[in-house]
Each structure stands twice: as C-alpha cells, then as structure tokens.
C-alpha cells in the first residue's frame, strides 16, 4: 500500500532514528566479534596440529562459525546503511512537507486534504460573505503547492518501497542463515532494482514501468545512483539498445498510457545521463563513454532482429540528450561531430527515417514530441545545449575541433568555418525536415522549423546562463554570455540582409528581455555622449551585479526594431521595458537628476518599440481595404498584454523578475532590474513602489476600452508617461514641475518613434 500524505506528516521518525542507532551498535559489536573470531579461534584452529576425523569436523565447524559471524556483521552493516539513508531522506522530506502544510498553505489561505492513494488536493475554504473568486496568481499558487506536496508524498513512498525491498534482500528470509545481499547505500539498492527492471526491456508491465520511472525520477540527479544505473546497462551500445527499444515500444500505435511512460523514461534517463557523465561528480562514468557514443553515432543500432531499418546511434542518443544539464566535456564533442556530419550531408540522418506516410507521427526516439520527431540529431543536440548553459557558452565561443567520421579527433583537419555561431546562423544553412509528416500535407509547411527553434533555445541558454525553459526562469550572465548576445544582435537586426527564421523569433524576444537593461544603456549614447553624461550613474549596476555592456546605440535600436515588428516579440520586449522602467525609477527616488535622465531614455525606448509595431501593422493592412475595419481590433490585440496583464504576471526573484505567462502569449521570461537592494528587501521595494503605478492605473481591453483609447499611439503614450508621473509624485515634484516635464517626456517618446522612420523608408 502506498505511503499517504497523512503518514508522512504524522509519522514519528524518531523511532526510526533510534533503530538506526541500535543497528549501529549491533554493527560495531558484530565487527568486534567477527575480528575476534577471525584472529582468535579461526587462527588457532588453522594453526593447530590436529589429526583424525574429530579434527576435520572441529576445523570445519570453526571455519563455518567464523563465516557466519562475518556474514552477520555484513548483514547488519547493510541494514544500518539502508536505514540511515532512508531516515535521512525521510526526515528532510517530512521537514519540507511540514513547512508546506503549516506555513505555505496558511499564508496562501489554502487547506490541504488527504484524498488517499498518495494524493492530496488543495483548496480555498469558503469564507462567509466571500465571492470565492480567485485571481490566476492565486489559482497557480494553489496548483503549485498541490503538485509540490504530491511530489513529496510520491518520493517518500518510493523511498519506503525501496527500503522495504532492500531490507528483505539483506535479511534473505532465513533466520538460520546470515549472509545475503549486502548494500553500501540506499542508492546502491535502488540502482540494482532499476537494473533488474531494465533487463525486462519492452516486456515490462505498466506497473513495472511505473516503478522504474519512480526510482529514476527521484534519483536521476544523484551521481552515485545514475552512474551505477548506466554501468548496470552494460555500456554505451547497450544503453542505446535499451532506450531505443523502450522508445519504439512507447511510441508505436496509439497506446496513450505506454506513450506517457516512455516520455517519463526519456526525461528521467536524460537527467541521469547528464549526472553520470559529469566529471566533477565524485561518481561518474569514464570519459570513454563520450568517445564511444561518437563512434556509435554513425553506426546502425539493431533494435529488432532482422529489421530492415536500423537507426543510427546519434538518432537514438539524441532522445536522451534533450534532457539534462550536460557538462561541456561530454556533450560538446558530440555536438561538434554532429554539426560537421550535417555540413557534409544535411540529409544523411533524415534519409534513414522510417517511411510511414504521415501516420504514427510520434514513432521514434523523441517520445516528448517537442521540437522535432527526433530523427535529426542536430535538432536533438541543440535542444541538449538549450538545457546546458555552460556547455552552450563554450560551444558558441570555443574554436571548433575537427572530427573524423568515427568521432575521433582529426588533428590535421579543418572544419571550414570560424565558429559554430557563424555556421549555424548562416543565411543559406540547410535545416533538415525533422518530421514524419507526409511531404504533401499541411503540416509539412513547418517541417524545417524544428532546427531553428532548437538553435534559438541553445542561444537562450548561452546568453542567459540558464536552461531556456527553466522554471522559474533565471539569469546568470557573464562576459562570455554577453559576447554571444552581442553576436546575436549583430546577426539579427533591422538592417540584416536576411531576417530570422520564424521559429527563432520568440527566443530572440526572450533574449532581448534578458538584456533589456543593456539595451537601454546602449541607447543612451547620442553622438557618443553617454559616458560624458554619466550613464554609468544613471543606469547603475545591473541587477545581477555585473557592469552594463554597450551593444552600440544603432545596433541596440536595430535589434529592437527587428524584434518589435513581430507581435509576440513586441509583447515580450514592451512588457520587459515597462518592468525595467519602473525598477529604474524606483532606484532613483533619491536622485531626481538621474531619475529624469533615466525616464527620458526609457520613454525613447518605448517610442521605438511602439512605432516599430505600428509600422508592421500598417504594412500588413496597407493593401487590403476590406480589412481596414479590423485594424483597430488588431492594434488592440497586440497591446492586450498591457499594464493590467503585467501586474498579474510579475514575481520578484532577488534582483530579477519573472514576467509571464499572461494572456496566453508571453512565455515566462526573466527581466533584469535596476536596484541597489537584493533578496526580500528588493521584492518588497518592488511590490510597494515599482508596481504601484501599474495597479493604480490598470485598464481593460474590452471593446469599450479599445474604443476609448482609439489608437495604439494613445496606449503607447500612456505606457511611457504613467511611470514617470508616478515617479514625480514619489519624489515630491509640484504640478508646475510636472507640467514642464510632460512635454519633455513626450519629446523623448516621439524621438524614439522618429528613429523608426528610417526603417519605414527602407521597408
């Protein structure tokens, strides 16, 4: 029977702690007895000059007794280690559970109910006179708490089951015979069980499959466990064979339960492989695994005897690489080899996909179904870099190393390009159609989107220092990540000869939001005056403590004019700009001069973004008279992610905020702040001051509101002025001062708009 929520909250783990102590005493006593037996009676028995039948019987008895005492010590030691590990993990889980239930839940006004079978439900109790209406933030918080508690209960249940199973094996069930399975740790026992289940392969029942996933889920990031597990599979080839068979078993046909299990296995094994191949972990696989994977990458891996179509090693491995934060020493040689193979023949791997005629589209080695079917290893390895920020930074900045066909280093070879950034961002780079769709179908229009989408994720990881889909998003920027962002801005901007692939645009927008502080800093440099006018003081230190970097005024503006043309790109950058503007004005409450300079520049940036998006809308509708009546509606839609939406979508995280998702449009994005404070004080200051103007001036986006505002320009002007007005009131400016300030801020806003005029003329 599964452990329940009530069990975990109420169980007295002190009794288990006492058992651990008692077993430790037994281990110590039995060790002494075993040593005495070996050095005492066994040694004397072996040295005695006995003869005859009685001597043989006595010597055999002494030898057997000595062994039994040693076996008892080994059994007791195994039991003690298992109980110690189990107790340690359960105590930590119980502590976290009690924090969630006794602190987090009451703070949110939530109750927790045990519904049995290891599950709970969280709910808001009805309060007399309450409407019971909840904001989306409250509903999200409730769901997060429920999911967190259920994960802890599931983890505790898995520990309980693993511990019981391992104790039974240690004891053996024979009270007259000690000396059975001995374990050094609970990890050791869990890895053994995972290996037993893995040996069943596709013959695993759903129940056994769930057990394997449960063990992997809670231990994948533990290097001791993950290393033991992969070694138990045999080696790189056996790993590919196991994962390949399980993937095909889960994706063939229309068995939704089996598909869900294979998706879990893909994620769990990927996370475990990242842990097991990190050389900095005390336990890890040898470096030869990376070399062996490269060797197998271009070789067929036979998964089914007699099958006419065997996948290449890289096609199978790609499914695992999509999950986990990999060390550069493991994944980058693989990534380099894959790119070089792709350069020689972009269709090499896709020519080896099964011909299904558009049926069974998830069949293969990427059960997740995200970003490609998984037959193109280039897409897969870029997704892997998208979750491995340090490896991604090195991949885009280190000089390329040439590799032979078999994955060995070609010491005298050349790759034909200066960097992987240059190669992958070439105008004429050929992306393979990583899909199983029928060539003539509607879905086939987007078959080449997957590679650019994965490239965007890898660049996000490299420039932000966090996985592109980290939850919550985070920023860990440094000099290397800034250099890559500088390359991004140089490659993708309004003056580029060729624009970005549609699939990479959302990544460009999130990268822009992550560097909104440096983009603002760069735009404050009219005629090269930035440093002379003290922009270092105006923009202060970045939220993550680093000094601001200058992309160049024109380059920063051109990047924003490219990203801002796209609807989602505009929404992301505009929302980030609102948040950053508010944080900057908050930081300058005691320095009106710097505050006003910051406000003018922020208004200019707002003008650039608003005018850019307006230009795109006019371009879309200029040749269609019948659509003219829809223009206002269209304008309202792209501003729908406005002031009121961003209030509900901002959460403080130290000196960075997480923005989105809101209105189902803007994905969660990390936005740097301009702040001198950090931690909770920063969150408090942000909540009390920075967002106040948003809360006080929220508006609706219904038809009446759209009719009242009439145009995008009025909404844009409001977004530029309201934070400045709030700032003026905060620093005590008089009405006369505000009257003088208003036309100046308007001028800055329209200066930004005017800068977009060149883009319109070129267009």
Largest sheet: 3 strands, antiparallel
**Terminal residue distance:** 68 Å
Lateral strand order in the biggest sheet: 3-4-5
- Measured by DSSP, the beta-strand proportion falls in under 5%
Structure, described:
- The chain has 763 residues and is mostly helical.
- It has 32 helices and five strands.
- It starts with a helix and ends with a helix.
Please summarize what this structure is.
With 763 residues, this protein is mostly helical.
What's the arrangement of secondary structure elements?
Blueprint: H1 5-10, H2 13-39, H3 41-47, H4 53-108, E1 111-116, E2 119-123, H5 136-171, H6 186-198, H7 206-219, H8 223-233, H9 236-251, H10 256-276, H11 288-297, H12 313-321, H13 328-344, H14 377-386, H15 389-397, H16 420-424, H17 450-464, H18 479-491, H19 505-514, H20 516-523, H21 535-539, H22 553-563, H23 567-587, H24 592-621, H25 631-638, H26 643-648, E3 650-653, E4 656-659, E5 669-672, H27 679-690, H28 692-696, H29 703-709, H30 712-730, H31 735-755, H32 757-762
Antiparallel strand pairs: 1-2, 3-4, 4-5
């Amino acid at each position: 029977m599964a452990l329940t929520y009530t069990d975990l909250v109420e169980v007295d783990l002190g009794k288990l702690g006492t058992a651990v102590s008692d077993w430790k005493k037994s281990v110590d006593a039995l060790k002494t007895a075993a040593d005495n037996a070996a050095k005492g009676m066994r040694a004397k028995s072996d040295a005695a000059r006995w003869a005859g039948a009685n001597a043989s019987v006595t010597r055999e008895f002494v030898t057997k007794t000595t062994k039994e005492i040693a076996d008892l010590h080994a059994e007791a030691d195994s039991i003690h280690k298992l109980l110690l590990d189990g107790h340690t993990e359960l105590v930590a889980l119980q502590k976290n559970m009690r924090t969630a239930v006794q602190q987090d839940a009451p703070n949110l006004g939530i109750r927790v109910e045990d519904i049995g079978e290891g599950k709970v439900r969280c709910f808001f109790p009805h309060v007399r006179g309450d409407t019971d209406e909840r904001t989306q933030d409250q509903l999200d918080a409730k769901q997060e708490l429920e999911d967190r508690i259920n994960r802890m209960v599931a983890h505790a249940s898995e520990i309980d089951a693993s511990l019981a199973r391992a104790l039974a094996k240690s004891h053996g069930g024979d009270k007259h015979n000690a000396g059975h399975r001995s374990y050094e740790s609970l990890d050791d026992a869990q890895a053994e069980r995972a290996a037993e289940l893995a040996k069943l392969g596709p013959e695993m029942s759903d129940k056994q499959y769930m057990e394997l996933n449960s063990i992997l889920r809670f231990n994948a990031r533990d290097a001791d466990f993950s290393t033991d597990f992969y070694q138990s599979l045999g080696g790189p080839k056996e790993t590919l064979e196991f994962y390949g068979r399980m993937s095909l078993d889960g994706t063939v046909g229309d068995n939704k339960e089996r598909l869900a299990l294979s998706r879990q296995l893909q994620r769990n094994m990927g996370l475990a492989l990242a842990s097991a191949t990190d050389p900095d972990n005390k336990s890890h696989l040898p470096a030869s695994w990376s070399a062996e994977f490269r060797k197998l990458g271009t070789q067929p891996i036979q998964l089914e005897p007699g099958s006419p179509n065997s996948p290449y090693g890289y096609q199978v491995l790609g499914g695992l690489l999509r999950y986990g934060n990999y060390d550069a020493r493991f994944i980058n040689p693989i990534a380099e080899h894959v790119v070089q193979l792709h350069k020689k023949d972009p269709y090499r791997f896709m020519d080896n996909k099964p011909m299904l005629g558009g049926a069974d589209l998830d069949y293969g080695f990427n059960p997740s179904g995200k970003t490609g079917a998984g037959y193109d290893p280039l897409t897969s390895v870029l997704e892997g870099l998208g979750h491995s920020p340090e490896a991604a930074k090195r991949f885009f900045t280190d000089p390329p190393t040439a590799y032979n066909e078999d994955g060995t280093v070609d010491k005298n070879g050349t790759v034909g390009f200066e960097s992987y950034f240059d190669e992958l961002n070439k105008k004429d780079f050929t992306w393979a159609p990583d899909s199983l769709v029928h060539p003539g179908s509607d879905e086939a229009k987007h078959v080449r989107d997957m590679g650019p989408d994965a490239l965007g994720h890898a660049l996000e990881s490299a420039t932000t220092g966090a996985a592109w889909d980290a939850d919550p998003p985070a920023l860990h920027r440094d000099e290397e990540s800034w250099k890559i962002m500088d390359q991004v801005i140089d490659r993708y901007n309004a003056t580029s000869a060729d624009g970005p692939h549609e699939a990479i645009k959302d990544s460009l927008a999130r990268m822009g939001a992550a560097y909104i502080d440096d983009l603002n800093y760069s735009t404050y440099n009219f005629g090269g005056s930035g440093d002379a006018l003290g922009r270092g003081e105006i923009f202060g230190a970045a939220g993550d403590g680093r000094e601001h970097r200058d992309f160049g005024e024109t380059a920063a503006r051109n990047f924003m004019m490219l990203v801002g043309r796209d609807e989602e790109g505009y929404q992301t950058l505009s929302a980030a700009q609102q948040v950053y503007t508010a944080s900057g004005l908050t930081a300058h409450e005691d320095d009106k001069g710097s505050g006003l300079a910051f406000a003018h520049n922020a208004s200019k940036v707002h003008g650039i973004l608003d005018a850019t998006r307006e230009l795109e809308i006019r371009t879309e509708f200029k040749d269609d008279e019948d659509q003219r009546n829809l223009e206002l509606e269209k304008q309202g839609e792209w501003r729908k992610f406005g002031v009121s939406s961003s209030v509900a979508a901002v959460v403080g995280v130290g000196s960075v905020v997480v923005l989105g998702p809101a209105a189902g449009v803007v994905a969660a994005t990390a936005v740097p702040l301009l702040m001198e404070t950090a931690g909770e004080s920063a969150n408090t200051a942000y909540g009390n001051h920075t967002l106040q103007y948003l809360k006080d001036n929220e508006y609706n986006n219904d038809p009446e509101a759209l009719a009242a505002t009439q145009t995008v320009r009025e909404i844009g002007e409001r977004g530029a002025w309201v934070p400045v007005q709030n700032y003026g009131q905060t620093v005590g400016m008089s009405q006369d001062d505000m009257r003088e300030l208003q036309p100046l801020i308007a001028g800055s806003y329209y200066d930004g708009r005017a800068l977009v005029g060149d883009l319109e003329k070129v267009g």
